[in-house]
């Protein structure tokens, strides 16, 4: 493995380890798990409201649903984590540098989202344990957590990963390869990871160009984040 790919592989392992450790906290604390799922469900609802026009668009709906359900939905990703951990050495050895970097950034986005969500859960629990999440309490917790540079990085990674997925859709051979991999992937316990990759590829391929979609997501999320930090947000959805 060349030096660049080795560095990417090391970062990939670090991000995978961080995300898995945060998700493991759910297994040890039932109350915290409940609150984390409540947060993710609330955020998914907020995103669905903010980006309702994309969800209602025939062109953008699949990508918007992938964005909400696979990246922000209140789901259990343990199977996908385990599958990725198993194939990481193979990915690092055989994938080209650009593809490995794309996977690394996707996992970084996942780990960063988990980190910020965990901080939000703790802030919400400190403010009003067990209370339903409202616009005001969410905004207050967002400011209390702070970490503005990490919030900006999270949004930038959404564009990076989206643009990389869009680029992959311009290579017809990849769709065929993904379809052929379905059976073997399920046979060795990689079905969840394969399904995730196929859904992302098909959703972005359906758009036939992701520039407008990504511009909408990034501009709206950045504007709302800035308003949270400035204390000027009126409604989250």
Describe this entry's structure for a reader:
- By secondary structure, this protein is an all-alpha fold.
- The protein has one domain (3-230).
- The chain is 82% helix and 0% strand.
- The chain contains eleven helices and no strands.
- Helix 5 (78-94) crosses helix 10 and helix 6 (97-127) packs across helix 7 (135-145).
- The longest helix is centred in the middle third of the chain and has 31 residues, at 97-127.
- The model has no long low-confidence stretch (mean pLDDT 80).
- Compute the number of strand runs: 0
How would a crystallographer describe the biggest sheet? none
Terminus-to-terminus distance: 47 Å
Residue-averaged pLDDT: 80
Estimated helix fraction? over 70%
The secondary structure category is: mainly alpha
Radius of gyration: 18 Å
Number of DSSP helices? 11
The parts where pLDDT drops under 50 for at least 5 residues are none
Number of domains: 1
Tertiary shape: globular
| Percentage of β-strand residues | under 5%
Order of secondary-structure elements: HHHHHHHHHHH
